[in-house]
Amino acid sequence: MKVKCIDNTGAALPEGVYSYNKSSHFEVTINKEYTVYGIATFKRFQWYLVCEDHFDGVGVNYSMYLFSGCFKISDGRLSKFWKVAEDSDSYTYNERTIIFGFEKLVSEKYFYANLLEGEEREVRIFSTIKRVLDSEFEWPA
Questions:
Q1: Is 11:23 a contact under the CB 8 Å cutoff?
Q2: Helical H runs in 1-66?
Q3: CA Rg value for the chain
Q4: What is the pLDDT of residues 81-131, one digit of tens each?
Q5: Which of 47, 29, 19, 56 is nearest to 105 (CA)?
Q6: How many beta carbons lie within 10 A of that of residue 139, not counting itself?
Q7: How far apart are CA 47 and CA 39, in angstroms?
Q8: CB-side neighbour CA atoms (13 Å) of 22
Q9: Is the pLDDT of residue 21 over 70?
């Protein structure tokens, strides 16, 4: 799946979205296309897991969940490597988190957190799956 950036500020965010605000700025470029490595649905909102422009595969600057309203779907084909899971830590029905993405992202509770921390195992796994997903949709839709 690929998306094109249409907004890189917090202006597109709905009121009360956690972690961001209307003055937020995301390191993505307007009109640039990004591969989506996962989708999380939380509190009725969708978030796309993309690598921001400063991604270099080194350190802790890995993929980030960004609000789907900042993007327009440019290639809606879903990866054959994606799975879906429900986050078991959700406290109420209205706050369930549904995650679509590669196997380790959806099956290992702390995979994403460990990736952000630069843990060697998660970095290696993400680097591998990133190459696969980046090349998966190089052919025209």
A1: no
A2: none
A3: 15
A4: 999 998 755 555 556 688 999 999 999 989 999 988 889 999 899 999 999
A5: 47
A6: 7
A7: 6
A8: 4
A9: no
User: Each residue of 56-73: pLDDT tens digit?
Assistant: 766 556 788 888 989 999
Question: What distance in Å separates the CA atoms of residue 139 and residue 27, rounded to the nearest whole number?
Answer: 26
- Rounded CA gap, 75 and 57, in Å? 24
Judge whether residue 47 has pLDDT over 70: yes
Residue 77: DSSP 8-state? P
Query: How many Cβ atoms are within 10 Å of 38's Cβ, its own excluded?
Result: 23
Measured between alpha carbons, how far is 30 from 57 in angstroms, rounded to an integer? 22
Residue with tokens 């993007």: 71
Closest CA to 117 of 50, 62, 60: 60
Give the strand pairing for 71-75 and 38-42. Answer: unpaired
